Amino acid sequence: MKEETIIISLGGSLIIPNEIDISFLKDFKDLILAEVIKGKKFVIITGGGKICRKYQEVAKEIGTPSNEDLDWIGIASLKLNAELLRVIFGDNANERVISDLHDEISFEKSIIIGSAYKPGQSTDWDATVVAKNVGARKIINLSNIDYVYDSDPKINPNAKKIEKISWAEYRKLIPAEWNPGLNSPFDPIASKMAEEEGMEVVIMNGKPISDLGNYLNGEKFFGTIIS
To answer: Least C-beta-crowded within 10 Å: which of 21, 164, 168, 184?
Structure first.
């Protein structure tokens, strides 16, 4: 059986929408372990979620943090989420969380949990860096959004969903530069690298979890493929 390595950027909005979503995490664990049995390997990068934003908001209300200060708070929150994922997967995951995803990575187990290393980068960038590092061709961006749209659906009720799009066309839809507050399905710097490396990125909602299983098994799913 040929082993395939897949990168999942697991949005903090799924881990901690308000409180820790235990039901989602149980379902996510079960699905990933079922795919491991089929021969797949995974690197899972965690986001920060609502707890990250709460800490950042308090920092801004009481102090005068720089973007780098806010990034360090974000890194701390997603490291906490990463350790939670590592423990949840137990003996199926490498025994330590990988912070610097440029490092040489050894798959002692079929699942590696990654966090973040330094300010000035997004989890999209981290996912793309580790994909290049391990030779993975697919990145799944799992969050609470269903598709990429041709405009912001929160502003434009007539925004049209996109099921498949080229990197060139996708990059026309998003800003050219990244900043810590950027709201984009996949950030512009990570997008440039993913395009150069010929990677496929999938934007999809983590709920229902069966959709992730459908994609992993080549079946119909709801989401956007960028390639």
So the answer is: 168
